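Students often ask why inverse folding is considered easier than folding. One informal answer: many sequences map to the same fold, so there is more than one right answer. In these notes we will look at a single instance of the problem. The structure comes first.
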């Protein structure tokens, strides 16, 4: 006998194990997230605000004045220096009470030239031994153009240069036998109209005042001026206002 068992249909088992026909044949990648914005830079601490307006200006004014004063003093002491004219020895070029500026750098670049108006220390004067306080006070007053001793510094015009022979005959200066044209002199310069020939030593100068009749210069009293005694060249009159102008040589 044949048992009457159920007979499975072909393909039935296969159908139960087949994939979902609606499923995508491709594998989906995970969704990419959007880039995050950069973190903000750390804030710098706020500076303390200075007071503004008139109060702030008045607060800073004393400091600014001190700085300006020190800068001006340093410039006058090492670059240019104010000098007060105490006598009439350079008239009519310079009068009593005039103030001039002296260039203290120029002769580090070249030696003095004929016709220059120069300021120099007394070549016969003795060195003064100053205390620190006295030295500072001297530096301060000289930088401001205050002359405590007119006999310590002089202002004259360069006439003879190193190695030259200088003489005066009939009120005319001769350099190595040739007359010197001096347009800065007044028509009647007077003074000592005769001076025997002298030869200027090396690194020294022969100087004269423009007021030849009233000037202590190389003819008598001062003699030759060594280079190391020269302070600088006067180049401009700054006071009084009516006489402001440049100083010219030859």
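Output (designed amino acids):
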């Amino acid at each position: 006998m044949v048992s009457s068992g159920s007979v499975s249909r072909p393909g039935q088992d296969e159908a139960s194990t087949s994939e979902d026909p609606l499923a995508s044949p491709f594998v989906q990648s995970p969704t990419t997230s959007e880039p995050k914005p950069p973190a903000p830079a750390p804030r710098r601490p706020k500076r303390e605000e200075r007071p503004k307006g008139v109060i702030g200006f008045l607060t800073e004014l004393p400091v600014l004045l001190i700085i300006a004063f020190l800068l001006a003093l340093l410039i006058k002491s090492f670059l240019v220096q104010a000098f007060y004219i105490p006598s009439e020895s350079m008239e009519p070029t310079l009068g009593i009470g005039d103030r001039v500026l002296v260039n203290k750098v120029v002769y580090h670049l070249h030696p003095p030239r004929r016709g220059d108006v120069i300021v120099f220390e007394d070549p016969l004067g003795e060195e003064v031994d100053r205390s620190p306080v006295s030295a500072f006070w001297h530096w301060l007053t000289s930088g401001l153009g205050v002359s405590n001793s007119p006999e310590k510094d002089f202002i004259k015009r360069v006439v003879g240069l190193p190695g030259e022979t200088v003489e005066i005959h009939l009120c005319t200066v001769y350099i190595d036998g040739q007359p010197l044209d001096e347009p800065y002199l007044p028509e009647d310069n007077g003074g000592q109209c005769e001076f025997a020939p002298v030869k200027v030593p090396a690194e020294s100068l022969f100087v004269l005042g423009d007021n030849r009749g009233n000037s202590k210069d190389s003819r008598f009293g001062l003699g030759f001026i060594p280079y190391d005694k020269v302070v600088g060249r006067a180049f401009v009159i700054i006071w009084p206002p009516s006489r402001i102008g440049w100083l010219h040589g030859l």
